[in-house]
Amino acid sequence: MTPEVTRRALMLGTAGAAGTAALSGCSRGGPADQDQPLRIHANDSTTFQPNFNPYGGVPLQGASGLIYENLRLATAMSPGESEPWLATELEWNEDGTVLTVTLREDVEFTDGERLDAEDVVFTFLMHRDVPATNTVALGIADAIALDSRTVQIEFDGTSFAQEADICTRPIVPEHVFSAFEDPSTEQVADPVGSGPYQLERFSDQLYTFVKNDGHWAAEEFEPRELAWPSFTTQTMNTALQAGEIDWSGGFIANIDQIFVDHDPEHRGYWYPGNGTVNLTFNLEKELFQDLELRRGISLAVDRREIAEIAYQQYFGPPHPTGLPRPTFEEFIAEEYRDLEFEVDLEEAERVLDEAGYERGGDGIRVAPDGTPLVFELPIPSSYNDWVTTSQILGSQLSKVGIALTPRGISFEQWLEARDTGNFFVTISTAGAGQNPWYLYRSMLSSEYRTEGDEPVVANFQRWYDEETDELLSSYADTDDEQEQRAAVEGLQRIMIEQMPTLPIVTAPNWFNFNTELWTGFPDESDPYALGAPVQNADRVMVLRNLTRTTN
C-alpha cells in the first residue's frame, strides 16, 4: 500500500506549524551548546496529537525506527542490501514463501520485558488479521515461533521482492498491543518500545526523545536528546535562517538565500530522487483510455520549465521510465539510458489532430464523441509546489487546445477524490521504495483494484493490464538478479510506450542540514542513507552516524 504519508515524506511542502516559542528552549547558548539536543523538523502540523503507535492513524515522526525497531536496516540508497538489527540472520526457502528470522538475544523493551520471537509473531499476525496495519500489503499467511529467538513467517505467494518491507516493519510488544481492541486506531501516548530512544516529554508544540541507555547498541548513538518542534510556514523559514534547526525535511523556496548563504561553512542540502510526481489520468474514464491523447498531452508538457520555476532547479526533469535519478539510475535499461522527455508542440498538434481531437471555434479541442477537452485539476490548496506546477501545466496545455484549470481543495477532499476516482485528471506521488519493483507496483499493479466505490490505496490512475501484472509477478517470483532486471526493463518499456501515467517531476527526498553542532549527515559524496528524517530505517542510520561538531 501507499499511504498518504508517502507524499509527505517525499514532498514535505513548505513547513507548517507551531511557533518559535517551541524552539526557544533549544536556542544557542555558548558552552551550553554541548548540552543542546539535536533539533529536528519532520512535521508540518500546527499542533501535535500524542500518538506514537506506528500502525495507528498518523503516528508522530520518530516512533518507527527510534522507539519501535526494525528487523533489519535498509535504505533505497543501497537497493537489495540490508544490515542486521533486531534480526541477525534471514533465510528464505527455495520458492520464497517462507522466511526464517533469527533474532538478537539481548533486546529488552523499556518496561523491562524481553523482546523475543513471540513479539515478532504477534506483529506479523497483526498485519494479517488487522489489514489496516498492513500498510505495505504483505501477503502474510502465518507466523510461528520455532523457539525464543527464531521466527518462521509464511507468505501466500513468493515474496523475495518484499524482503525490505518485511524487514522494516516496526516490531511492537505483544504484552502491550494485544490489549488493544483495534491496533490500527489505538492512540498510544506512552510508548513502550525496544529502540535506541524513548519518549521524554510531550506537548502539543514540542516533543523530545532521550537516549535509551539500556539499548543493546546505545554506545553507537551519540545524540542524547532529540527535539521535535512544530512550525508554521513563517516560523520554519525563520528558524532555519537563524540556525535553530539541525536536521530538517521540507521544500524551502530559495534555499540558498534563506538558509545556506547565512553560514555556508555549516549549512547544506541534498535532494536525491525518491519517487515520481505524476500527472494522473483516471483511466476508467473512456476519454483517457486513448493512448494518443495521453501522448499528445505529454509532448506539450515542458518538464524542465516546471523543474526550473516550481522547484527552482533543485533537480532536473524526470526520466521517461519514471525511475528517480540518481537513486535508481543503475536500473535504467541501456536502450533508455539517454532518453529524455521531449517538448514538441508541433508534434503534439499533429498527434491530437490525427486522433480526431479537432479545435472548436474557441480554440479548445473536442474529442470525437463531442467531449470538450476542458478539465479541472483538483489539488490540495496547501501544497504550494503543486499549485505552481498545476498553473504551469495549465499554461502549457492551453497552447495545444486543452483547458486545464487548477482547483485548490482541502487535503481531505483531494484525498477522497483521488482514492475514489472522482476526477478526470489530478496529480499524485509514487514513492521509490527499496527498489524499482516497489515504485512500479504502487503505480501500475492491478492488485490494488477495488470493486464499486471502494477507494484504492495505490495505482491511482487505475492501470489494469495483464502484461504489467505478469512482469511484476515475474520480478517477485525470483531472487535471480538478471531475471529481476529483465522484468524491470519490461516495466520501463510499458511506461515509455503506453504512458499509463505521465511523470512530470522527480519527487526528491527533501533534506536540509546544519553541521554547526552535529556532523556526519549523508550527502552526495557519502550517500549512505536518505537524509530527510522521515524514513524509519534511514533515520536510525543517520543518527548512528552523527557526532558532536568540534571547533
Task: Describe the overall structure.
The chain is α+β, with helices and mostly antiparallel strands and 551 residues long. The protein has three domains: 134 residues, D-Maltodextrin-Binding Protein, domain 2 (3-Layer(aba) Sandwich); 107 residues, Alpha-Beta Complex (Dipeptide-binding Protein, domain 1); 236 residues, Dipeptide-binding Protein, Domain 3 (Dipeptide-binding Protein, domain 3, Roll). The chain contains 16 helices and 22 strands. The strands form seven sheets. A seven-stranded mixed β-sheet has the order 8-9-10-1-11-20-12, with no helix packed on it. A four-stranded antiparallel β-sheet has the order 4-5-7-6, with helices on one face.
Features:
551 residues; alpha+beta; D-Maltodextrin-Binding Protein, domain 2; Dipeptide-binding Protein, domain 1; Dipeptide-binding Protein, domain 3; 3 domains; seven-stranded mixed β-sheet; four-stranded antiparallel β-sheet; 16 helices; 26% helix; globular; disordered N terminus
